[in-house]
Task: structure prediction
Amino acid sequence: MAAKYRNTTLRLSNVGWYPYVFTVNQPDGTFRLKGITGSMIDYILASMGIKYQLVDPSDHKWGNLEPDGSWSGMIGQINRNEADLALGPFVLTEREAMVANPSPPYTDEDMIILSGVAKEHKSNVYGYISAFDLHVWMVLLCFLGFVATVAVVAEYLLSNPEMSIRQRRQRLTRIFWTFVASVFLESSTFNFTSHSQRLLFGFWFLMIVVLMNTFVSYMESALMLKEETDRVETIEQLALHPDIQPMVFEAAGFLQVIREAEGQAFQKVLRMMEEYDHEEEVHGEELFTPPYLSMVLKRKAVFLMERISLLARVSQHCYDVELKGQGLFHLGRKRILQIKMVFYVRKTMDPVLQASATPPQEEIFKRVRWIMDSGLNLHWHEDLIPDPGPCWTKFHPDHLHDYASLNYQDFAVIFYLLLCSHGLAFCGYLSELVLFHWCCLKSRSRIGPNSYLN
Result:
């Protein structure tokens, strides 16, 4: 196979994009392609015995469809027969695939959002009470008012007629504050003479013990964690921030896949781009410069791109003086789109080569599939991921930094049991009303009016 193409030289259109395509000089004065795409092309062409030379587009562009119908950049070169293969990297889109033959996708990447934060963690002045969310506190206060009122009403209706008004008022007040004090797990020597009151208070105190011990334990655990600052993770979150400017690297097809994406959030983000007049082409080297990166750190802009390019290009500026002290970069943890990376081959290659038993294009594409099956492309991918540097937020895969307040659903069973206890107390209350003159009045007269104040 190597002898078959030994006199063949392919022209490779290249603008260079680390970590996908870059060149490394050899001791003999030659160079070799490196990177996710570059290493793959270098290995494939070397195994086929094909030589290659790099052809740089004069406009240094990936390839855009011009108003007159022509193509610029690398796509334009292979259309004008100035190159045989465009290295890219390119995102597979229908528009480019109509004028050039795309290779099999050699890697699937996640398009994510690069945003900025002032600091990694935030302080919460309400952290001591945020162990329960607002719904739990509201339900708890409503139950407190309800059970205290029921106990007071039961005491009023079943009160000893020998007690004075002042004694009754003092006793009703003490019943109310006994329920309030129980919220703070405070004990009381107050003596409930009604069985329905004892039943009601018993279930209430049991629920309070469970809730308050859960609150204390969760609060102590939460104090050892640090709550992360708000970040833009999804396209839906970005659509809710019209004050943030979305920036997309227009070349290589990134903007085109967003235009073709379905969903109201994507359409709103596209309109936001139009409002900021940022749909024009932006060169990668210009996008990843301190002025634009500073906008990201100040939460005035976000980048939409695939992860490894963002990590590689931004990490180079971690120690820039212009960005020092402005904040941290954050890579979104959630994928907004999955994109397929390809390179493009000219549709009409050398007729002599194409007429051979195995045309070079088919052979190249077949060997791309071999590399994918072997997992070698994943090795290049992982090997080229750089050290993030100090300008990034930290990633915590163990979820130890995830914090959420306990909500009503976490305690629904306890509140349901309390409602059932109310039903039992109500049945006891009705029984006491019926037997009031026969049983309860006799026991109350035996206790004496002065003992009710204890």
Q: What stands out?
A: Residues 9-107+341-383 form a domain with the D-Maltodextrin-Binding Protein; domain 2 fold (CATH 3.40.190.10). Residues 162 and 449 are 6 Å apart (CA to CA). The longest strand covers residues 107-117.
